[in-house]
Write a structure and sequence with these properties.
mainly alpha; 5 strands; binds heme C; two-stranded antiparallel ribbon
């Protein structure tokens, strides 16, 4: 093969590789998006079964401190705001491990839930509910379930 033909072949091959890498990262971005936003909204105030369950779990285990609908209280932060910047993995880490803030004489404690199966087994659901709230896709109060 002549040298010119050879370099063309290499050029061509690297274009194909670049194209493949492009598709890969688009797929990766879509996967990341689905991971960070696991909820499905199927109508005004209508959510998938998991997100609905998250609403119920949140109001059983978290709302006493974080307020109804995730809106915060004088004691604990507004999670609708928190999830605008917080990633799903960081959320999971704080809920499992808890957190304590004793700075400036203020004492606030986020309990660790790693031993509470009714929370840990449904962490995705609770996150999903709060993320839908945080994204402005779900209003206050009890949502409805998507028709199955
Ligand atoms: C006993 C009160 C209490 C309960 C119950 C509670 N939290 Fe918290 N949570 C707090 C406090 C206080 C903080 C702030 C801790 C700090 O200052 O770092 C916090 C912080 C957090 C944070 C970090 C927010 C941020 O912006 O950094 C997340 C996420 C969180 N809680 C989720 C939950 C979830 C989900 C539940 C229910 C499963 C829950 N919490 C139940 C008191 C509570």
């Amino acid at each position: 093969m002549r040298p010119v033909g050879g370099s063309r072949l290499i050029l061509c091959a690297s274009f194909l590789l670049l194209a493949a890498a492009g598709t890969g990262s688009a797929q990766q971005a879509a996967d990341d998006e689905a991971y960070e936003r696991p909820y499905t909204i199927c109508g005004p105030n209508q959510v998938d079964r998991g997100t609905y369950n998250g609403y119920r779990r949140y109001h059983a285990f978290c709302h006493v401190c974080h307020g109804p609908d995730g809106l915060g209280s004088s004691y604990a932060p507004n999670l609708v705001e928190s999830l605008k910047v917080m990633k799903r993995d960081d959320f999971a880490q704080v809920v499992a491990g808890g957190r304590q803030n004793i700075a400036a004489g203020k004492e606030s404690v986020m309990p660790a839930f790693y031993e509470v199966a009714d929370v840990m087994n449904y962490l995705e659901d609770i996150y999903s509910y709060l993320k839908a709230r945080s994204d402005g896709k779900l209003g206050r109060g009890r949502p409805e379930r998507c028709p199955s």
